[in-house]
Specification:
The complex is a heterotrimer of chains A (about 280), B (about 350) and C (about 260).
Chain A (H helix, E strand, L loop, with lengths): L1 H17 L19 H19 L10 H14 L1 H33 L1 H14 L8 H8 L3 H25 L3 H9 L4 H35 L8 H10 L3 H29 L5
Helix pairs in contact in A: 3-11, 4-5, 4-7, 4-9, 4-10, 6-7, 7-9, 8-9, 9-10, 9-11, 10-11
Chain B lengths: L1 H13 L1 H10 L8 E7 L6 H8 L2 H4 L2 E7 L3 H10 L4 E5 L2 H8 L3 E6 L11 E5 H5 L12 E4 L5 H13 L7 E4 L3 H9 L5 E4 L1 H10 L2 E6 L10 E6 H6 L1 H23 L5 H12 L8 H9 L13 H13 L9 H4 L9
Parallel strand pairs in B: 1-2, 6-7
Antiparallel strand pairs in B: 3-10, 4-10, 5-8, 5-9
Chain C lengths: L1 E11 L2 E11 L4 E5 L6 H9 L6 E7 L10 E4 L11 H10 L5 H14 L15 H14 L4 E5 L7 H18 L2 E5 L3 H7 L2 E5 L6 E6 L4 H4 L3 H24 L6
Helix pairs in contact in C: 2-3, 2-4, 3-4, 6-8
The chains are: A mainly alpha (about 280), B alpha/beta (about 350), C alpha/beta (about 260).
Chain lengths: ~280, ~350, ~260
């Protein structure tokens, strides 16, 4: 059997001499081309279909409001000036909570990455506390931090702290040991090694941790604003839900999504700036 | 076919609770008796349905009842709108009016109501606020007041207090806390100054000493129709017979409830039996000895024959409109189907 | 400055990696250490550099390093160990910063070492923009900047292709001719050893013992023109190692 195959193959070039054909192309594919126009087109098509569905009644008013209704709710927000009030309140909580959570997270992550004692003592704690849904702790947060800005900032802080810790110590663990050895061999001080080798080396992991923690912060914004918030996009969404005002609900969700896109873009810029050395 | 698609689509988009509800009960019509799903919250005010089921009042009406439990009134209202649950009892909220305006649900009867002669909802303040001089509802001006959500019954009560005491509604700083336990936690710890709640919860709170009672809601709202019975517009319009049979069974449950816990005209033996029935669904996580006094304490009257106080409902609707919480066009006609029960 | 290794032995867990190694390294001398893989060559170098401690025996320093030497024992690594986020000059200035050398003084040193390694045009390039040979030249420039008394070179040319290796060997010979640095040069490549070593220490397979010390009495600068003689020498050393290398290749390694 195998013998025949060999013979066939051997015979092939003889036939090929008579009529040369091109080698069949088998490469290609598995590579992404940038197609910049596709994503806005998909987006616009979905919204148009949605609007059409709502207008014709195929999508019931209860199931989903029309995009135009959501847009009208958004316009109302702008006209009444409430948009800025909500944005201001939410951005304050996001910025303060995320910044503090990230700073603490990087600090604790570095500790765990650098000191065996901290790793042995804190890592199990972090692993135990990370999966706790912070929303479940809300009643406790009220008592600990009050119903003012404290509990809201704390919810976001706790939510962003743990992923940052894990990203940071993972980043520290992944710093090329040879670079650290190089630093030691040149007699660099411990602090210099941490500052000039470990921290920049862990930066890619820390920044991708930021990407995740910023999304978590936005998710938690709604939870944070469950507690006694008069203003804020999360409070607006919750109010819309309670009143079953689905047009406002969609408008609020669109705002959150836009916020996420903007933050994602900013982190992309930061990555390009801080990680320009990467191939 | 088309309407099914629409309903299913609505169901999908509305709430996860619906899917759970469908799975739990299965909306297959039995051939012998009509199967209906009744939404329940773990509150004593939902007792009439429980009693009616346990004592066979629904069976007498040829109804096969399945209970579907909910954690909050909002998802229950949504489940009724989508048709996954047939009947429910809850307070009139902005969400409820909104759904009624969209033409999917209708109030068909009254349930819990404030009466001058029966202990009703209390106005509470934290110990700290009380020490600080908030000893009557008039002192609430400039204070914080806990509510669950915007457009909830708590929101309405707060504004009615402000209106009657003659200060601006905005002078009462409302703090939406989403859930009753969160309001309780913040009231106990003095994070908020005031709240109003049904007597059995109020009683438990004031006993601890961290919370002080300073007034009654009944002084601010006349004959407040606190909760109502509601169903989907489809049920009210297409199956009036089913609605009538449900209400008939429900009304008998109401009579037993009032006799046992409000008027206390029932024998102790029979009352204990009623309490045990209620305990199946309310305070079920506690032993009966512990739950018993809690179920009995501070029971408020539920209207006989599910009579509906239209005047109170209209007042509530007007308030929602005045706050811009529901569309200006919202009407009593869309909200209430008064053809099933006596109204006043 | 003279370095003396006095009967060094070492274990990793239950595996003995080095057994009773003694030799010394004098000023201006390049000693090459060769041996089959896993014989503990690199470990030995880490002992000399003070990055690890041997179980038994000691590494002794005799005499003072030159007064201007910032880091007497300086490494050159196989994988260059450049910080990818720093430019060429940034990588050199890294090792000066901790000695408090900044500003003009640092710039003068950096200019000097980059000129000596023919890197002046690439000051602001990032490591990812450089070829392997260039990266190793940056590492050498970095090592030169701290004025080492002894260079500890751990397979410095092994990650490079053979042509680049040739070029860099020439560079190293030039550099030595000018600077007369002393070096301990670990390699598994015998051609490098015979081109660069004044003495070649041949280690046995694990546990590494000194099999033989080969002296090559030929000036480094002349060697490029006398490759035939070197070839003979290289063959002789290979004969010494062949069986060991074969055996070492069959071993299952549990040592990093």
């Amino acid at each position: 059997m195998s013998h025949e195959v060999v013979q066939e193959r051997a015979a092939a070039p003889v036939g090929a001499e008579a009529a040369a054909t091109q080698v069949p192309f088998r490469g290609g594919g598995f590579r992404h081309r940038p197609l910049g126009l596709v994503s806005p087109l998909v987006f616009i098509t979905i919204i148009l279909l949605w609007e059409l569905g709502s207008r014709t009644g195929f999508i019931s008013d209860i199931a989903l409001p029309a995009p135009s209704q959501a847009l009208a709710a958004l316009v109302d927000l702008v006209k009444t000036g409430m948009l800025w009030k909500h944005l201001e309140a939410s951005l304050f909580r996001l910025v303060v909570g995320w910044t503090l959570g990230s700073l603490l997270g990087v600090a604790v992550g570095l500790f765990i990455g650098l000191f065996s004692l901290a790793r042995a003592g804190l890592l199990p704690l972090v692993s135990a506390l990370f999966p706790i849904p912070k929303i479940a702790l809300l009643p406790l947060f009220i008592i600990w931090f009050g119903i003012g800005e404290g509990s809201k900032v704390a919810t976001i802080l706790f939510g962003t702290f743990f992923p940052t810790v894990i990203a940071t110590y993972g980043g520290v663990d992944n710093v090329d040991r040879n670079l650290i050895r190089m630093g030691q061999s040149f007699g660099l001080s411990w602090l210099s090694i941490v500052r000039k080798i470990i921290l920049p080396g862990a930066m890619p992991a820390i920044l991708s941790g930021f990407r995740i923690s910023s999304s978590i912060a936005i998710v938690l914004l709604v939870a944070a604003e469950m507690i006694g918030a008069e203003y804020g996009i999360g409070a607006y969404v919750l109010m819309a839900g309670a009143l079953f005002a689905t047009d406002q609900l969609i408008a609020g969700v669109a705002l959150l999504s836009a916020l996420g896109l903007i933050i994602g873009w900013l982190i992309g810029r930061a990555e390009r700036y801080f990680l320009s050395w990467r191939t | 076919m088309f309407s099914i698609t629409r309903r299913r689509l609505g169901g999908l988009a509305l709430s996860g609770a619906l899917a759970a509800g469908t799975m739990m009960s299965g909306t297959v019509m039995a051939s012998a008796a009509d199967t209906i799903n009744v939404g329940l919250l773990s509150l004593t005010s939902h007792s009439p349905s429980i009693i009616a089921e346990a004592r066979g009042y629904f069976a007498d009406q040829d109804l096969d009842v399945e209970f579907v439990s909910f954690q909050a009134a909002q998802p229950m209202a949504v489940a009724i709108a989508s048709g996954d649950v047939d009947f429910g009892v809850t307070a009139i909220s902005g969400g409820l009016v909104s759904l009624a305006e969209k033409g999917v649900i209708k109030i068909i009867g009254g349930a819990l109501q404030e009466y001058p002669d029966i202990d009703g909802q209390k106005i509470l303040v934290s110990k700290a606020a009380h020490d600080d001089g908030v000893t009557t509802p008039a002192d609430l001006k400039g204070r914080t007041y806990g509510i669950t959500t915007t457009g909830s019954s708590f929101h309405y009560m707060a504004h009615k207090i402000a209106d009657k005491e003659g200060f601006d509604r905005a002078e009462l700083h409302l703090k939406p806390m989403q859930k009753v336990p969160a309001v309780i936690a913040s009231l106990k710890s003095g994070q908020i100054d005031a709240w109003s709640i049904v007597p059995n919860i109020a009683g438990a709170l004031t006993k601890g000493g961290e919370v002080v009672e300073i007034g009654k809601v009944a002084d601010y709202i006349d004959n407040y129709q606190v909760t109502t019975v509601f169903t989907s517009t489809a049920n009210a319009g297409d199956k009036p017979d089913l609605v009538k049979r449900f209400l008939a069974g429900f009304a008998k449950g109401v009579d037993d409830y009032n006799a046992a816990l409000v008027d206390k005209t029932m024998s102790e033996e029979e009352t204990a039996e009623i309490v045990a029935m209620i305990h199946e669904y309310v305070y079920a996580d506690q032993p009966l000895e512990k739950a018993d006094p809690r179920i009995r304490a501070g029971a408020m009257r539920i209207n006989a024959n599910a009579k509906l106080n239209l005047e109170s409902v209209r007042d509530q609707l007007e308030w929602f409109k005045s706050e811009g919480l529901v569309p200006e066009t919202a009407s009593m006609d869309n909200l209430v189907d008064a053809s099933f029960v006596e109204t006043f | 400055m003279k370095i003396t290794l006095d009967s060094i032995s070492h274990h990793y867990g239950s595996t003995e990696v080095l057994n009773d190694i003694s030799f010394s390294l004098s000023d201006g001398e390049i000693v090459c250490i060769v041996g089959p893989s896993g014989c503990g060559k690199s470990t030995l170098l880490r002992f000399i550099g003070g990055l690890e401690r041997p179980d038994r025996g000691q590494v002794l320093l005799a005499g003072r390093p030159p007064a201007d030497s910032l880091n007497p024992l300086t490494y050159i690594f196989q994988d260059f160990a450049l910080l990818p986020w720093r430019t060429v000059e940034g990588n050199v200035s890294l090792v000066l910063e901790d000695h408090g050398i900044r500003g003009d003084k640092a710039r003068a040193i950096i200019d000097d070492v980059l000129a000596r390694t023919k890197l002046s045009d690439f000051r602001t390039a990032l490591p990812r923009q450089l070829s392997g040979g260039m990266k190793q030249r940056v590492a050498i420039a970095r090592a030169l900047s701290v004025k080492p008394a002894v260079m500890l070179m751990d397979e410095p040319l092994s990650a490079l292709d053979s042509q680049t290796r040739e070029l860099l060997m020439d560079d190293l010979v030039d550099l030595w001719t000018r600077e007369r640095f002393s070096a301990c040069y670990v390699t598994h490549n015998l051609a490098e050893a015979v081109r660069l070593g004044h003495r070649i220490i041949v280690l046995s397979r694990r546990p590494g013992r000194i099999r033989e010390i080969v002296e090559i009495d030929m000036p480094l600068a002349e060697r490029v023109d006398r490759l035939a003689e070197l070839e003979t020498m290289q063959r002789r050393i290979w004969e010494l190692m062949r069986e060991e290398a074969r055996a070492a290749d069959m071993e299952i390694s549990d040592v990093a």
